[in-house]
């Protein structure tokens, strides 16, 4: 019995010792964990202190940079004022009265010197040119800021092993379409180029500094693309804390949030996208996938299921336009791979779009890519954009396209690319969905026409035009008002005034101009022929130029006496020029009223163009199509233009 008790006691002691050892081990592990926790807390506190000091340093740096920028501006202004003072002094010194005074003062004791000095002072002297304000030098930065620089950098292309040098396309900066809106955007360069002119755009913020950057100008909207590079790519891939913090910051301030899917698998972005208020996709085929993804996941507490819509890529007129590069186009038809090698940035892509004679796009090319090419005026081989009614035959590589036919195809494709919807129109739809105002400037047109005795022909030129809100008609026909109202589309205001034979053409145009209410005013000549797309083609130039007056210096003309169709100044397309034809005038109403029409009947357009040059008003010559100048005979025109055909002009001019 005693042995059993002794054995039991031994077992109990052994078990107690084991438990004690385990307890000691646990105590040791607990102490180690507490030590690590303390170290982590110390490290966190230290990191928090470092972050606060970093934020303070960044704030001080911003203040220093702002002070530096102000000093730079002040220095530039002082230099400019010093140049102005020097110019004024030089202007006074070369003035005739000053030179006469100098001659009299230096020659008062010497008649010969006086006579020589007076002769020299009487001669006209060239006045010095006034100084111009120079751009303020920018502070050099160590690394590029995303979105701050968006210009082409590559000036050479390689085709068939040979290098070709070209002048890069200069990407314009501002103005924007909706200056009343500020939008914070996370996007790749392509999407940024499409959006940057639609509003005041904030870019370049990161998950670490968004609160500080966006607080400088709190946005109305946050738009995040499905990016796969940059500081936000990892946040979008896993719905990270930085993204959640950004969306929470927006929610506190009532900022709308939109996720824009432009590429990649839906599943890869569904978790992040579900945190936004709205989801839009650029890929119509992915709408079903997004619907299924949203239906399969429950929204987080306090969140509603995002709305789903479309925001496809579209033409951005500021960068996708027919403004040419310096020099002629490369005289070859290139494949898409030759045109757009993988290493090009998007600003360099915009340069390549304008480079070749034509591009051979393979089947399956993205429609947006073909639309961008077409909008830049580049013919597309075998493109449905170029010939919607009948597919064009592909051009062989190395061939030179027929100039007239290719120009008409390219112009029709450009028109169709814009007709499919610009980015401004797509953004209008987006803003309507999210509940933000989409108001922007319009391009409504008032048309002035002087009836020359054939009212039916006069009305036939203006009735098919789009974008017209008002017709101001000068006609002596008794039923002109009724006939014009019956002919014009519903909603177009018709104003008819009788002509006055005692008034010059310029005076009548001035009186008609006072009646105009459209944003733009067109002057059309009733004796000429205008195609149905004439005004829409012409008004398009206001979307991508800074001109106040648009018209045609390149145009077709038809001479009835010899039945000849000629083309005047074909090289004058898409360029700023000193003058355009008066019968093709389309101008901003306020600018045209400020200039006015001269009180003359012949050459009123030449006087107007001279005044534009004097006042510094920019004049832009658009395409050659949509207008035909009709004359019985015109020897000057026949001698100064190139012969196109003996026959009617419509097949050539009304593309």
Alpha carbon gap, first and last residue: 120 Å
Helix content: 40-55%
Structural class: alpha/beta
Low-confidence blocks of residues: 140-148, 383-402
Number of helices: 22
Q: What is the number of beta strands? A: 24
The geometry reads as extended
Largest sheet: 8 strands, mixed
Radius of gyration: 35 Å
Widest sheet: strand order? 14-13-12-15-21-17-22-20
The overall pLDDT average reads 86
**How big a fraction of the residues is strand?**
15-25%
What is the subunit organization of this protein?
A: single chain
Keywords: Coiled coil, Glycosyltransferase, Transferase
Protein name: Glycosyltransferase
EC number: 2.4.-.-
Biased composition (Low complexity): 131-140
What can you see in these coordinates?
- The chain is an alpha/beta fold and 655 residues long.
- The chain has 22 helices and 24 strands.
- The N and C termini lie far apart (120 Å).
- About 4% of the residues have low confidence.
């Amino acid at each position: 019995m005693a042995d059993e008790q002794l054995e039991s006691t031994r077992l109990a002691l052994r078990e107690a010792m084991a438990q004690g050892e385990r307890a000691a081990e646990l105590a040791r592990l607990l102490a180690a964990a507490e030590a690590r926790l303390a170290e982590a807390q110390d490290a966190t506190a230290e990191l928090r202190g470092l972050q606060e000091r970093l934020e303070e340093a960044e704030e001080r740096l911003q203040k220093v940079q702002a002070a530096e920028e102000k000093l730079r501006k002040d220095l530039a202004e002082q230099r400019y004022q010093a140049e102005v003072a020097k110019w004024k002094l030089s202007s006074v010194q070369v003035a005739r009265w000053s030179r006469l005074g100098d001659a009299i003062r230096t020659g008062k004791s010497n008649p010969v010197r006086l006579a020589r000095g007076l002769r020299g002072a009487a001669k006209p002297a060239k006045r010095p040119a006034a100084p111009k304000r120079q751009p303020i030098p920018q502070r050099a930065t160590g690394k590029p800021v995303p979105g701050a620089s968006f210009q082409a950098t590559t000036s050479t292309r390689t085709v068939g092993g040979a290098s070709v040098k070209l002048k890069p396309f200069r990407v314009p900066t501002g103005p924007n379409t909706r200056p009343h809106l500020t939008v914070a955007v996370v996007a790749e360069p392509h999407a940024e180029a499409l959006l940057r002119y639609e509003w005041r755009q904030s870019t370049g913020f990161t998950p670490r500094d968004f609160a500080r950057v966006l607080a400088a100008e709190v946005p109305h909207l946050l738009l995040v693309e499905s990016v796969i590079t940059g500081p936000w790519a990892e946040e979008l891939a896993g719905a990270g804390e930085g993204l959640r913090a950004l969306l929470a910051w927006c929610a506190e301030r009532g900022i709308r949030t939109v996720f824009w899917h432009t590429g990649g698998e839906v599943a890869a972005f569904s978790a992040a996208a579900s945190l936004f208020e709205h989801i839009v996709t650029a890929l119509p085929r992915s709408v079903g996938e997004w619907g299924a993804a949203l239906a399969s996941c429950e929204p987080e507490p306090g969140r509603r299921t995002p709305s789903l819509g479309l925001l496809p890529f579209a033409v951005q007129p500021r960068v996708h336009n027919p403004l040419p590069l310096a020099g002629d186009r490369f005289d070859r038809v290139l494949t898409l791979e030759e045109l757009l090698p993988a290493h090009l940035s998007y600003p360099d892509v915009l340069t390549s779009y304008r480079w070749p004679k034509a591009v051979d796009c393979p089947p399956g090319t993205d429609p947006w890519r073909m639309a961008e090419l077409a909008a830049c005026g580049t013919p597309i081989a075998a493109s449905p954009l170029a010939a919607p009614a009948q597919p064009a035959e592909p051009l062989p590589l190395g061939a030179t396209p027929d100039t007239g036919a290719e120009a008409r195809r390219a112009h029709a494709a450009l028109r169709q690319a814009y007709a499919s919807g610009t980015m401004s129109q797509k953004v209008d739809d987006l803003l309507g969905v999210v509940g933000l105002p989409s108001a922007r400037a319009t391009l409504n047109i008032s048309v002035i026409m002087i009836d020359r005795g054939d009212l039916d022909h006069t009305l036939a030129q203006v009735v098919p035009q789009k974008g017209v809100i008002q017709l101001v008609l000068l006609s002596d026909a008794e039923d002109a008002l009724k006939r014009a109202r019956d002919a014009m589309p519903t909603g177009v205001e018709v104003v008819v005034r009788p002509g006055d034979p005692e008034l010059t053409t310029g005076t009548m145009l001035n009186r008609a101009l006072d009646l105009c209410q459209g944003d733009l005013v067109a002057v059309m000549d009733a004796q000429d022929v205008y195609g149905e797309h004439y005004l829409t083609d012409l008004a398009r130039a206001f979307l991508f130029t800074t001109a106040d007056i648009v018209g045609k210096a390149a145009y077709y003309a038809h001479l009835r006496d010899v039945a000849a169709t000629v083309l005047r100044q074909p090289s004058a397309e898409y360029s700023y020029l000193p003058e355009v034809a008066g019968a093709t005038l389309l101008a901003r109403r306020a600018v045209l009223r400020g200039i006015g029409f001269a009180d003359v009947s012949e050459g009123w357009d030449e006087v107007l163009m001279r005044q534009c040059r004097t006042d510094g008003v920019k004049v832009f010559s658009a395409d050659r199509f949509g207008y035909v100048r009709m004359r019985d005979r015109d020897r000057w025109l026949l001698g100064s233009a190139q012969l196109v055909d003996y026959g009617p002009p419509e097949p050539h001019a009304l593309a």
